[in-house]
Each structure stands twice: as structure tokens, then as C-alpha cells.
Amino acid sequence: MKLSAYFRKNLTLIIVLAVLSGLFIAAANGMESKDFVITLLRGLSVGSLTFLVASGFSLIFGLLDVLNLAHGTLFMIGAYIGWTVYVRPDTLVDLLTPLALLLSGFMLGDVWIALSNRILFGKRLKRILPWVGIFISALILFSVLKQYPIAIWKVANYAQSPVSISYLASQGQNILMPPVDMAGFSPLLGFAGLIAGSLLLAFCLAVMKAGKQAATICITWRNFSGFVVLLLAGILFFVFNNALTDFLANLNSNWLFLVAVLVAVASGIGLGALMETTLIRPLYIRPIYQLMLTLGLSAIGIEVVRAIWGRPEFTMPRPELFAGTGEGCPATSLADWWQYHCSTMLVMDGRIRVFNEILIPVIGIIVLVAVWMLLQRSRLGMVIRAGVQDREMVEALGINVRRVFTLVFALGVGLAALGGVLAAPSIGLSNLMGESFLLNALIALAIGGLTSYPGAALGSLLVGLLQQFIIKYGQIGIPIPFMDVIFKPSPPIVPASTILLMVIILLILPNGLLGKKE
Amino acid sequence: MANHKPFFALKPDRGMLIALLVFILLPFVIGLFDGASPAQVWMNGSGQSKFIQGLAIEIFILALYALSYDLIFGFTGLLSFGHSMFFAVGAYLTGILLKNFGFSLAATFGMIFVASILQALLFGMVLPRVKGITFALVTLGMASVFHVLVLSTELGKFTGSDVGLQGVVVPDFISPATERLRLYFITLTILVVVFMLYKRFVNSTTGRVCTAIRENEGRALMLGYNTFYFKLAALMLSSLTAALAGMMHSIYQPIVSPNVAGLGFTVTALLIILIGGVGTLNGAIIGAVAYRLLDYGLRRYIGESASFINGAVYVLIVLFLPFGIVGTWRMKSLQINQGWKRLLGMFTNSQDKSDGA
Amino acid sequence: MDYILDVQDIHTFIGQYHILQGVSVRVPRGSITALLGRNGAGKTTTLKSILGLTPPRQGKIMFEGNEIQGMLSFNIASLGIGFVPENRSIFRDLSVEENLKIAERKKGDYAGKKGFIFTLFPDLKRLINLSGINLSGGQQQMLAIARALVADNCLLLIDEPSEGLAPVLIEQLMKAIQQLSAYSTVVLVEQNFLVASQLAEYYVIIEEGRSVKEGKMKDLTNDKATIQHYLGAA
Prior knowledge:
The complex is a heterotrimer. By secondary structure, chain B is mainly α. In chain B, 74% of the residues lie in helices and 1% in strands. Chain B has a single domain (11-349), classed as ABC transporter involved in vitamin B12 uptake, BtuC, CATH 1.10.3470. Chain B has helices at 14-33, 38-42, 47-75, 83-100, 105-126, 132-151, 156-159, 180-203, 205-215, 217-222, 227-252, 263-276, 281-301, 306-320, 324-347, 351-356, and strands at 165-166, 255-256. In chain C, strands 6-7-8-3-9-10 form a six-stranded mixed sheet, with helices on both faces. Chain C has a four-stranded antiparallel sheet with strand order 2-1-4-5, with helices on one face. In chain C, strand 7 (155-159), helix 7 and strand 8 form a beta-alpha-beta unit.
């Protein structure tokens, strides 16, 4: 009884799903089983990467109502950061000290607020002084950072450009990491400049904000702990710079890859939190301008990436576990692969790449389940699900929705960065990878339902499969019945096919496959 | 108030009238800088002036295009991501009809008129089913299909696929090479006529219903308006204007790049009206000027990393001009007016009476 | 008298519209106070202004002797103010239990209050695993009030509890509100004058964004002219 009611209610959805699976079966029948398995796994792989972008995008859109068009760019930045950590760990280690010192001043947020409440400025002075301070601190920071010695590749010099470094690394050669030139830089002066600039900047920002929250804060030693920890960390990183670099450079490439993933995700989370608190937050009352802001940020991001890593495309070498080609390869089973670390594997006589077609889908599924558990089982997830529907009420219950917003934004960007760092060894790094994946994710979300989490997964899967099947059929051709013509879809049809699927599904089910009716 | 004559209805637009005057004199003034007398400019003798005219023609075309987007997005509240198709259909149809079929300009315009109505109907077809962001995505889909058609090799004979449409022979009397000043004034005239038409439209009952749809469609429906027809009307007018802009683009540019059919070009329209101010007609024009000059200046003087500054400018505009140039000006002008009144009040004591009660 | 909430001449704007143009409400501790007035007079906006959801631009709001205007909504709510909005705002995707649990401000709130809530609204116990989307209007209203009770709130703002409910349910709700007023102070917005007059001890009449009259409910029920003037037919 209940089942029949369910059928009647979701008749359109069921018919659409039936037609889709019919198409899928037809597509499977049209090719050899070996081709089919490969195409299926490739579809899963592209679908997983799309899902990592789409899920974060949909969480952000659902809760914050922000169409984050910079999401693709953040995906790309994740990939480039991952590459940096993996191929040039010395750059990462060199960056740690200035980063820690830069952040240290902001750890004193409460102290600054209390201090600025205590000091009474004139009204006009209060408006001008912070800007002057920010200007001075920017000047200090700029002059110090300009001299700060950081080992880095050179985009202009081909032999030292990321392209060559990647090539050397993929050949298994040790990359020469030249020691940094410390001439003309005195650590003490540099540190003092960084700390002073950071303190001044944090103080000025606090003064600007201080008028709005007149809370009395009592200052204990606890308020200083974050500052001290970061300060010590910065100095320790500097002292043990070489040791740390050596450690990372000699690390097994599997572990190094893990470090790269973690660093990329962490920087994604950090970037997301920074972006939400500083730029997106003032715009919740003007939603359409968020589009312009995120578009602008996306353009900036792409240019920054071009300036730092250069325009040419390159690939990140795969970790050793997925790179073997010698004896015993291609592997015939997972156990075989584990023994010989093969890069490829035979599945039903088809040769697949283990990293692309097995690891990425597995990670995609793990993330799917993990975020699903987070949404369904934790209190944070409960607040997110409630906030998607009615933000105001959640706030009226006494829950700090702003913090949840920041968390969700950071989480979403973190997921995108994870996608990026996984995409780097499989599809390579390019300036435009972000845009194409953003479009894919948007299509996937429209198909699955814009704010529905399972919808994001289903849509991404459909997009990935459809694209890969069309590509495959572009190679083998589709025989058209009753005619002697073999139709070969040309490359521009690949993106168009997913868009066409989206249009058809939206016209039948305006809220997507699993979206909720308004 | 009541005795205002219709002529004075233009009074709030004196800024636009000044702008019009500036644009009329611009080629000659630039010519003077170049050492060419107005007569020489008239004969298209000044290189500098010709160059500026070219830039201005591009701005007029962009302004037309942005106006058409403002009508459906800023006034009617339909977010479309497929707007570039309206423009691209005009551009490509003009080129193909002139080049491959030898149509006359008037016949081409007739075809474009028909085509733009048809594509507005195509977009209108999905209107009853999808709303809001879904409408945006469906229109994106339709425009992408057109983009793929333009790019496909099968139609390369007509469209030039990814190289772009080129080799269009434009009738001599508006040739951008030899008769640029005439083309300049023709484009300017079209812009002025369309602007006045739009002004009339948004202040008419139909236009007001469109604004009502943007604010609250349900309420407009309950007042007894079949909102579908109003949205369709706005779409048609918008489509026609955009196609006209595309036609001028095809006439002016030696090559029509397939990019004008892509999502990026829709985003350009969105950016222009966001810079100018959403839902203001002046904003579309001011935005077009700002956008094109910014883009040109940055590309000229900064070069490769121009889009970095471009992006930064967008971010700054969002943060410091919260409602676009015109929108923010209107908000502030209220404050400025109040300030003036307060200043006047200091000198005259008569305002006490009105305050007292 | 001891006032738990003292709203002093607040002015609230929504967009460019000046909605509240001077509303003062004083709520004695432990009482039920009804905000009365015609549709669109500004009663709901008054509640939202107290909670900071539509922050007032002018005026003072004192809660337990502290100024709370200008604070962020969630900070105000966590001082101990519960809100039952007009449209109930039940979270559709959450089960009834989750709808209650989300209102916890510290761990164990829900476990501690469970018994009290289910004696007030026995129906909810039966529905505990249903998702919010499947509840009827009356059940939603009960859940909305129950949700406001989970945390330790000494003040409840209840907006139009009787709207759109059958008379039987209204009676049940009135009983519940009466019972819970023993534990916390209640501010009630009510269109239905009969309901308001039976429940409330004090009243404030709001007319066109201004508070125009306040006093004891007993006096108002006898004052037919005032009722006629401000509230239309009673």
C-alpha cells in the first residue's frame, strides 16, 4: 500500500531513472566487455573528482546561498599546492616560518579588542589611524617578504620551471634542491619585521571592528598561548629548516603524497575560512554581488597561479605505490598490485591505471560516506541540515550560525582542494582545470538537485559516466540502425552531451532528480 | 508637479544628454588633438580619431548588449546564463547571410528580427516549467548547444568553426574601414533610440508589471496579470536588442570570434550591469564604458596579467560600490541632497515651521 | 514591579520602511503578556526586534537588567529567550527528536526536559521518529513550543500559536501554555482576542508601529470601546 503510493508520487523520477538505466545498458551492449569496464571505471573516476567539487559547492550553496564561482579555482589551487609539497618540499618548509610569524599577531584577537576598548581615540582619529597602521604594516611586511629567502622554482627559466622539475621527478631522478641564498638577509631583523607587521596589522583590524562589539574580556595568560606557540613554531621551523627538508625529501613517496594531500586540504580549509570571514560575510544581504565577487576572485586566483607556477601544463608524478612498471606488471589482481606496486592492472583483459581508476573512486566513496555520516549523525550536521532550510530560526535557537557558515565554507573548499590534489597526478595540472570542473559540478548539481547531497553524488556519477561513454564511442563509433553510417561523436559533443542531459532532466523534473520541491 | 510638460520628463536624464553631446563631439575633439580639423575627421582623415571611434563603437555595442541583459535580469528578474546566444545569433546570422547568401542589409535585418523573436519564444517555452537558478541553467544549456553548433566542423563552411566568422563583406556606405564616422553615428543613433525605447518601456504599464514580477511574482499573479506574457515580452525585446547589437558587432569586427556564443560573454553582460548598477538603464551604459575602458587600458598598459587587476577591480567594486556605480550614486545622492538642505536650512530659518508640527 | 523584559521606545526599519516607530513593552516576571493589535501593526516585528532578527535602530531593550539591543541574535537567544515563530519553522528534514535536540544549549538539556515536554504534549512522544515534513499544523505548533522549552529559557516569545488550528487543538495549546507559564515568563502575540484574554494577565496594544495602550487584561475585557477601537470586533 505504502509502496504503491510512493510509486505514484515519484512516477516521473522512476521513469527517468528507468530510461537512464536503459540507456546505460544499451551503451554497455554496444561495446566489448573490456572496453565497458574501462569506460565504467573512468566514468567513476571523473565522477568522483566532480563529486568532490560538487559536494562542497552544494553544501555552500544550500546553507549560505552563495554560488561560489571561485570553487573551481580553489580546486585548482589545491592541485598546485599538492604538487608543490610533493615535488618541492623545500619550498613548503621555507614558507612555514614566515607563515607562522604572519599569523601570530592574529592569535591575540581578544587582547587587541580589549586594548582598543581601553584606549580612547577621537572619532576621526579612530577612522584614520587603522588605515595608516594597515598601510605601514603592509609596507613592513612587503619589504621583509621581498627579501625573505625561499627556495623556489623559476617560471622564466625553462630548466628550473615546474614543467622540467615534474619531468625529472617522474623519471625518478632526485631533484636538486639548491640551498637558499641567505646573503643579504639577517634572520633577526626579518623576524622582528614580520612579527611587528603582523602585530600592527592585527591590532588595526581589531580597532576597526572594535566599535561593533563592546564586550568586556578579561585577559589571562591563556590569551597569549596561541601567539607564543606560533612564535616558537616559526623559530623552530627556521632552526630545523634543513633537517625538516631532508626528512621530507627522503621520505617514501607514498608518505610524501599523503603529506601533500593533508597540506593541500589544510590550506584549502584555511583559504575557505579566510575568504568567508573577510569577503563573503559582508555580502549576505546582496546575494547577486557575491556572483561578481566570486568571479573576480576566480580571475585573481587563476592569475596568481599563472604568476607562481607558470602557464604550461604539467603532471605530478604518481607516488611509488602506483608507479611500478617492471616485473609482474600489469598486475592481475589487487594482491598482485600490492606486491609489485604496478601502475596498471588488468581487469577483464582491459588495462586500467590503478591510481586513476581505482584509488580515486575509492576515495570518492569514502568521502561520500564520511560527509554523509557527518551530516546525519553529528550535531554540526544537524545544524547544517536545519540551516539549509531556515537560517533565522537556527539563530533564534541560540546557535552561532556564522561560525557554522565559516566551517561549512571551509569544509567545502577543503573538499575541492582534496579533489584538486587527487586530480594532479591523474589528469595533470593546468590553469583551466578549475573552470572545466566547476562547469561539470554545476551540471551535476543541476541534474541531481541543487542542494541535495545524495543528488550531488548521483549527478556527478551521471556526468562522469556520460562523458566517458561519449568519448569512448567517439573512438569506436555508433552504428546507426538501418543505415550504413557509423556516427562518431566529435569532441565538442562531450561537454554538450552532459549539458543536454541537464536540460532534458530539468525540463522534466525542475528540481533535479533528488531535489526537494519548494 | 502636475504641470510638468512631457519634455521635462527627460530632465532627470540631463547626465545622459551631456553624455550624448560628448559622444557627438568626441571624434572631432580627438581629431583636434591629432592635428586634424573637423573637416578632415569628417572625411575619416584622422587616424587617432578613427581609433577612438572604433573603441567607442565597441562600447556602444556592449552597451546595447548590456541594456538588453538589464531588461530581463535587472528589471524582470530573470537570471539567464544563455544571453550570449541572443547576441551570437545576431552576429552569426548577419555574417552568414551577407557572406554566403548575398542578402541585402535590410533583408538581413528582417531575418534577424524573425530569428530573435523565435529564440525568445524558445527561451519562453521553458519559462512556465523552471524558475530562478534552474532557468539560468536551462538557458545555459540551450546557449551551449548553440555554442557547440558554432564550433562544430560540419558547419565550418558557414561559421568558420573555432577560427571564427570572417570575410564578411559589408556594404560600402557603412564600411568600418572607409566610412567609420558614419558607422559611429549610426551605432550611436541606434543606442540612443534603443535607450529611449527602453526608458519608455520600463515606465510603461508593461514595464512596471515586469518590475513587479522581479519583486514578487506571486503577488503580480494574484493581481490578475498573466506574468508569462510579460516575461515573454521582455525576453523578446531583449532578444531583439541583443541580436541588433550582434549585427552591429558583425558589421564592425573583421572576425566574429566564437567566444561571443560562450558563457563568458554572458558573464560580461552580467559584470557590466553589476558595475553600472542592476536595474538602472544608465547603469548599463556607464558600466559598458567602464568595463571596456578598464579592459582596454589594462590590456594595453599591463599586458598579460591584466585579468588579475580586472578581478581585483571587481572585488573592490563589490566592496566599495555596493550597488554599482549608478545604484550607489543614487543612494548617496539622497544623502548629498539632505546635506544641501541642511546647509540651506542653516541660512534660512523658514524650515522651523515644517519641523515644528 | 520586577520586569524581566523592558523594551523602551524602539524604532525598527525593514529595508527602507520604518516599521516600528516607538514601541515600549514591559513584561513583568512570571506573567503572560499579550501583544494585541491589527494585522500588520508590528507585533511580529517587535518580537523579532527583541531577538535581534530585525535589529532596532533606536531605543533600548533591557533583559534581566542588561541592555541587549545591538547584540547578535544567537547571543541574545542564549541569554535564555525562546522563540516560537509565526510559521512555526519546524525543520522539515529533521526528525521530531532532532528538532528538539537541536535546541540544546548544553549537553543533556534534552534528556533533562524530555519528561516535562512529554507531559505537556503527550502526542509528541508518539511522533518522535517522524520527520518534520509529515507533521500536521497542530503537531508542528506543539513541536515548535516544545523546542523552545528544551533549553533553559526564562522568557518565551510565542507568535500566533492559535493561527490556523482547530478549536479543539487551540484549547489543548492554551492549557499547555498556561502550564508552562509556571516556569517561565511568556510574551504572546495573538490575533484571536478570546484566546489572548483567557491566557494573558497583561496586554500591550500596538497600532501602526507604536505601542498605544497597556495595562491589565482584566480591565481591557470590560472596556468594550477600546477593544472596538483598536482591535475591531471582539
